[in-house]
UniProtKB/TrEMBL annotation:
Keyword Hydrolase listed: yes
Gene3D superfamilies, sorted: DD-peptidase/beta-lactamase superfamily (3.40.710.10)
GO MF annotations in UniProt: hydrolase activity
Location of region: Disordered: 1-26
Pfam families (alphabetical): Beta-lactamase
InterPro entries, per database record: AmpC-like, Beta-lactam-related, Beta-lactam/transpept-like
Enzyme class: hydrolase
Protein's name in the database: Serine hydrolase domain-containing protein
Record domain Beta-lactamase-related: where: 38-371
Origin organism lineage: Bacteria, Bacillati, Actinomycetota, Actinomycetes, Streptosporangiales
Amino acid sequence: MTGRPRMDAPVPEQPPASPDGTRAVRPPIDAGHWWRRLADLAARRRVPGASLGILRLRPGGEDELAEAAYGLLNKDTGVETTTDSVFQIGSITKVWTTTVAMQLVDEGLLDIDAPVCEVLPELRLADPDAAKRVTTRHLLTHTSGIDGDVFTDTGRGDDCLERYTAVLADVAQNHPLGATWSYCNSGFSLAGRVIERLTGRTWDEAMRERLFAPLGLRRTITLPEEALLHRAAVGHVSADGAEPSRARVWQLPRSAGPAGLIGSSAADVLAFARMHLTGGRTPGGARLLSEAGAAAMAAEQAELPDRRTLGDSWGLGWFRLTWDGRGLIGHDGSTIGQNAYLRVLPDDGLAVVLLTNGGDSDGLYEDLYREIFAELAGIATPAPIGPPAEPVTVDVERHLGTYERASSRLEVFRDADGTVLRTTVTGPLASMVPDTVKEYRMAPVEEDLYVARDPDTGHWMAVTFYSLPTGERYLHFGVRATPKVA
């Protein structure tokens, strides 16, 4: 499941050539236009507040940066969104954590193919063999098999990741080590602990010292007491499709930090993306990450059972995707009522980030990015997945049953109207969301591939059924692999 990284540089110095061999000349970014489009589309999608940033590198010239803001950071207080507002970027954090891990590789302090237990000899997992063999590469590519949604609160102290690592001893293995791919927050918390052990700093301090400060980021935080110093967004959630209202909880437990607790402004996120676009350098030319390290992060590392939801394959931290024949890297983030979207087009020196705090943010992302990439890069984004125009006949009987992992139970059953996927949020996460149970109507696309319709937004999502070579049955939904238990 995991391959050796390619060491080719991910970013050429020039825009791609047109068919006649000349370089494409891209139009300048019209910030006013995108400000208006953000306002129009966000209002239509009932998004309370949003911040948009677009960055283009101009070889030999000054970078272009356009920012736009819309709406309210908090519907209860009426504080308006501005371009310097701080939103939770959620799992985009994983790319930042990976970047620091790769800095440690550059420094000779970390071998990502060596067992994690060489750095953390105290590591215990439910599968003793996995505990002996799991590597940092497994963690950074979501192939460790550690159940990925363990949101145990281990406190606000600086020892939270140390205590979280101990909790993993009681966490069931979701799949055998390296056997498949399943999105794994737990693995990134464990990677954060590796960073702590090797740097002698907390994960929060390591992020500040190794990324935030060198990149000159003034509106990027990891802790709630830091958020108080900025115009910080709060999440908004919708129960049963109702108008978004302020979430009861602002942030996930501190132990989830390396997986998803960075908060940032759009411009700061783009400054981080710029470092990757330039092969690991700051705007002033200082090197934060080797060119080989940046290339390895963008290179294919793992295959995906579901190539329709996020990307074609996974790198180190980044996911990889193809739009209109062009290769991109990116990551999304989702916390409690806040969602973020980052896409980077290396061959055009283009990066786009959208930060939101509720409503139909996926719909807003699709609307905006379709227009932005068509206008600025001549790229047609792929159409969202949906049911086929003509119904197809498949055998659903072998897929019926219950699938379960930490924080989630999925049931596939039939009723008078067809096939249904029922999801139930369990464990600590259940107290943080308004709807713990949702039902999705399913439609077959082809054998073993279905789409499920979200009753709140109307969006369709891929549901993939598959077996491991050893015969175990899995359901892949929401970028997680869930084993069949009944």
